[in-house]
Amino acid sequence: MDELNTYKDIYKTLTAKKFAFIILGLIAIVILAVFASFQGAADIKRTEVLSVIIQKAFPFFNLEPSKMADTIVWQLRLPQILMAIIAGAGLAVSGAAMQGITRNPLVSPFTVGVSAGAALGAAVAIVLGASIASSGKYFIISNAFIFALGAAFLVLGISRLRGVSSETIILAGIAIMYIISAFVSLLQYIATKEELHALVHWMFGTLSTGGWDMLPIVGILTLLVTLGISKYSWDLNAMASGEDVAKGLGVNTTRTRNVVMVLATLATAGIICFTGIIGFICLMSPHITRTLIGADHRFLFPGSCIVGAFLLLASDTVGRTIIAPTVIPVGIVVAFLGGPFFLYLLITRRKQYWQ
């Protein structure tokens, strides 16, 4: 009995630490967001930045920030900051989900061809002028979204032919990714100078194209997918112990793998169609979270969202300020971080990550 109580106390202590990690992470994101709103090429006093934010949140204070501060902070900086937080959270939870169903810390939604599909959709729109949307700002976005989903569903369909397992998903994803990349290269080869510039700029990945009108779309999608994926936390915990163990506990592993993969793909496609290709957040965030608070998916998913939001916001802030007034696309900054991190994982990967 004493031993049982000891285990209960240890469990409560560990759970309290995980909740503390999540709460401190949320506070860190708020602090970083305020700091990021102060940063930019335009020289605006911090008091004016705060005046804009307070005026928008509490109009009855009757503060009167300058028109320039209002335009730069409200129309440019804040939408970009919020998009970084939402996109980072969505990409991170998608990565955690994909790693959970494949039991492989080197896997992300991009492994199954989502990014390659989105790039092909954007290339078709930019180079060939063909899109699901007839015109307007959704001309490229709609194509990127549809093609990204198409690539992922093609991978899922092929993997079903050989039985839906982590190995078949990864191998089918790699094959489809290379095939699609060949088509993208062909379109780049035949593109004009202007078309090639537009396509390459889209593929860099940037948060500056998002506005207030796009935030609700990405935000609601990310929230719904996160809730949907979190529903399978216990199933993924069981699958982490092995396929046979999970089946013995009554988990329908095939259905879980299919549903979670579709949700993760939907979130990733919905985000990168607005932002362009932003890799490595899906890979780094779950791993960092797993190292800090363990692999229990009940806490791994919200923890990864927080780490992903923090990483993408920090990367975007660095990209906006490091050589200002020139802005480095956030996809490039993330790649500088993610490349070495991927090598680190590859060299030091251990099975203990899943325990």
Share in β-strands: under 5%
Which consecutive residue ranges, at least 5 long each, have pLDDT under 50? none
Distance between the termini: 26 Å
- State the share of residues found in helices, binned by percent: over 70%
- Return the string of H and E elements: HHHHHHHHHHHHHH
**Structural class, please?**
mainly alpha
- Helical stretch count? 14
Main sheet record: none
Number of strands: 0
Give the quaternary arrangement of the chains: single chain
Chain-averaged pLDDT: 85
- State Rg: 21 Å
| Anisotropy-based shape | globular
Textual characterization of the structure:
This protein is mostly helical and 355 residues long. The chain is 76% helix and 0% strand. The chain contains 14 helices and no strands. The protein has helices at 2-38, 46-57, 67-102, 114-128, 138-161, 166-190, 193-204, 215-230, 233-239, 243-248, 253-275, 281-293, 297-321, 330-348. It is globular and about 65 Å long. The two termini are 26 Å apart. The mean pLDDT is 85.
Key traits:
355 residues; mainly alpha; 14 helices; 0% strand
Topology (elements, then pairings):
Blueprint: H1 2-38, H2 46-57, H3 67-102, H4 114-128, H5 138-161, H6 166-190, H7 193-204, H8 215-230, H9 233-239, H10 243-248, H11 253-275, H12 281-293, H13 297-321, H14 330-348
Helix pairs in contact: 1-3, 1-13, 2-3, 3-8, 3-11, 3-12, 3-13, 4-5, 4-6, 4-7, 4-11, 5-6, 5-11, 8-11, 12-13, 13-14
